[in-house]
Amino acid sequence: MRPPDFAFRSSATLEDAIAVLNREEDSVVLAGGQSLIPMLRFRLVRPTVVVDLGRIQGLDSIESSGDVLEIGALVTTSRVSESPMVRSLSPLWADTAAVIADPLVRNLGTVGGNLAHADPLNDLPAALVAARGRVVVEGAKGTRVIESDDLFAGPFETSLRPGELITAVRLPGGAAGAYEKMKRAAADYGVAGVAVQMTMDGAGRVTGAGIAVTGGEQVATRAAEAETLLVGSDTDPSTIARAASAASAVRMPGDDRGSSRYKSELVRVLAERAIRRATQRGAGG
């Protein structure tokens, strides 16, 4: 289908983009375009102005400060998956980025766009929630930081205020992380996915845990009971099994990819795999 008519604005600075978004009531942002362009073609959105962020400098870097990883909003998911820094500080995010759609989408789609779209079937939201990351946003009133649990208000809805843009993601470093996903075809959305991030002490005991599920009724649903079961354990097989079972309690909608019951069982299997792999990484494996 042909997109609706709109004015196109390519902003050279963050300040200009924010000014346009605040001036034009029905404006939208174009980053990688992997979500927006299909929505325009099917007329799911009808903006008067599309603001392209591609020329803005400073939003495409991957940096670290101590054990905190900062990924710019315009960094593509392929760069996230291939970055040695990301693989070292956040294997969870490297795992997740590597299984998003296909190479074409990963080469164009951006971190900021993926998160701002807030699709329950997108993978990075679960990786953000499991890692307890933070999102830096910029707007007319300045900069603020949003905790991962406060970013997603519902399917395709975030807590970003009108005229605000995601500029970066900050992730606590940690080797004990992993993402497991099941999808039917390379370019297809996943049936379900589970993101796991843990912190472990020198004896291999879990001191903190984050688990989030992709594909639930809400965006990046936190499996809080499963997290509680892991904390204080040494991730023995019985504890892993109980935590995985608890993660499967996340409500999964039935659709053409599978029934709700099938998806819940799939979450259990994926959670067990992800916890085991995160444990191995945390132990230096």
Protein architecture, described:
This protein has twelve helices and 14 strands. The chain has 285 residues and is of the alpha+beta class. The strands form four sheets. It has a five-stranded antiparallel β-sheet with strand order 4-5-10-6-7. Strands 11-12-13-14 form a four-stranded antiparallel β-sheet, with helices on both faces. Strands 1-3-2 form a three-stranded parallel β-sheet, covered by helices on one side. Strand 6 (134-139) and strand 7 form a beta hairpin. The mean pLDDT is 95.
Write the layout of secondary structure elements.
Elements: E1 7-10, H1 14-23, E2 27-30, H2 36-41, E3 49-52, E4 62-65, E5 68-72, H3 77-82, H4 84-89, H5 91-98, H6 103-108, H7 111-117, H8 124-131, E6 134-139, E7 142-147, H9 148-151, E8 152-154, E9 157-158, E10 165-172, E11 177-183, E12 190-200, E13 206-214, E14 221-222, H10 224-230, H11 237-247, H12 260-282
Parallel strand pairs: 1-3, 2-3
Antiparallel strand pairs: 4-5, 5-10, 6-7, 6-10, 8-9, 11-12, 12-13, 13-14
Helix pairs in contact: 5-8, 10-11, 11-12
Strand order of the largest sheet: 4-5-10-6-7
What is the averaged pLDDT score? Answer: 95
Main sheet overview: 5 strands, antiparallel
Number of helices: 12
Q: Flag low-confidence runs.
A: none
N/C terminus separation? 50 Å
Shape summary: globular
Q: Could you give the count of β-strands?
A: 14
Strand content: 25-35%
Label the structural class.
Answer: alpha+beta
H/E element order = EHEHEEEHHHHHHEEHEEEEEEEHHH
Helix content: 25-40%
Radius of gyration: 19 Å
